[in-house]
Design a protein that fits this description.
Helix content: under 10%
Number of strands: 11
Radius of gyration: 13 Å
Distance between the termini: 40 Å
Shape: globular
Length: 123
C-alpha cells in the first residue's frame, strides 16, 4: 500500500512554469509505475503523463507533449511534473497516482491517488 501527497500547485500567469511534486509513503514506491492526471471543473479526469518503475519509459498526453516533463526519484519516493509554457487550458486539479499494471493512460489502472493540488493559469 502507498499513500500519496501532491504539492507545488498555485496561481500563475500564462507562459510561466510550475513543478509539482508527489511524495509517497511506504517502502514500496519503486514497485509502482506512476502517473499524473488532471481534472478541470465540469470535465472528466484526464491523463497527463506517466513514468515506468525505473523512469526509463515516459508517456505524455498530446496536449502537454513538449511542455511537461515527468520524472521520479526512487531514493526520495517522489515523482515530479515539471510544467513549462503553461496555458489557461492547463487549469485543473492535478493528481498523482500509482499503478501495478494496466494501461498507463487509464484511470482504472491506478489503485492509489493523492488528494490533488490546484493549478490555475491566468491569461
Amino acid at each position: 500500500q502507498v499513500q500519496l501527497g501532491e504539492s507545488g500547485g498555485g496561481l500563475v500567469q500564462a507562459g510561466s512554469s510550475l513543478r509539482l511534486s508527489c511524495a509517497a509513503s511506504g517502502r514500496t514506491f519503486r514497485t509502482y509505475a506512476m502517473g499524473w492526471f488532471r481534472q478541470a471543473p465540469g470535465k472528466e479526469r484526464e491523463f497527463v503523463a506517466a513514468i515506468s518503475l525505473s523512469g526509463s519509459n515516459l508517456y505524455y498526453a498530446d496536449s502537454v507533449k513538449g511542455r511537461f516533463t515527468i520524472s521520479r526519484d526512487n531514493s526520495k519516493s517522489t515523482v515530479y511534473l515539471q510544467m513549462n509554457s503553461l496555458k489557461p487550458e492547463d487549469t485543473a486539479v492535478y493528481y498523482c497516482a500509482a499503478r501495478y499494471s494496466g494501461a498507463y493512460y487509464d484511470t482504472r489502472s491506478y489503485g492509489y491517488w493523492g488528494q490533488g493540488t490546484q493549478v490555475t493559469v491566468s491569461s
